Amino acid sequence: MWAPDAGEPDEEYVVFFRSPAIDDRIVDQSAVFSFQSDPRLVLDQWLEDRPDCYRKIIIPGDRNLEFRDKLEQLNVNHRTLFSGLEGPATWLKQYYQPQSESDSSG
C-alpha cells in the first residue's frame, strides 16, 4: 500500500485494497478496489506521473493464444472476470471453439 509521506499532506494518493466477500462477483474476480484521495483525480494521469508504480506489458499478437492458456491456468478468464451468463458463455465459446493447426502450435 502506498500513501504520501507525513511531510506531504497535500499529495494526491491512491490506495488499493481487497474488499470483503460481499458479492459473488467480488469472490469470483478476487477483486481489488482503489480509493483516491480526491474524487476528481484521474487515475490514468496519476499513474502516468508515477511510472515507477506500475509496469505495462505488451503481448505480441502471435503469442495471444499462449498467454490466454497461461492466464487460464491461473484461473483468469471470461468465466471468472465477468459475472452473469455473459462470462461463462464467452468462456465456453472460446474453450470449445475449434483451433486451426497454426493456432495450436507453440
Beta-strand percent range: 5-15%
Radius of gyration: 19 Å
Unreliable sequence segments: none
What would you call the structural class? mainly alpha
Oligomer designation: single chain
Compute the separation of the termini in Å: 38 Å
Task: Using the alpha-carbon principal axes, give the shape.
Answer: extended
Largest sheet: 2 strands, antiparallel
Side by side, the strands of the main sheet go 1-2
Q: Into which percent range does the helicity of residues fall?
A: 25-40%
What secondary-structure arrangement, pairings included, does this model have?
Layout: E1 14-18, H1 24-29, E2 32-36, H2 43-48, H3 64-73, H4 78-81, H5 86-96, H6 101-104
Antiparallel strand pairs: 1-2
Features:
106 residues, single chain, mainly alpha, 2 strands, 9% strand
Task: Please tell me about this protein's structure.
With about 110 residues, the chain is mainly alpha-helical. Helices cover about 40% and strands about 10% of the residues. The chain contains six helices and two strands. The protein has a two-stranded antiparallel ribbon with strand order 1-2. The N and C termini lie far apart (about 40 Å).
Short description:
By secondary structure, this protein is mostly helical. The protein is 39% helix and 9% strand.
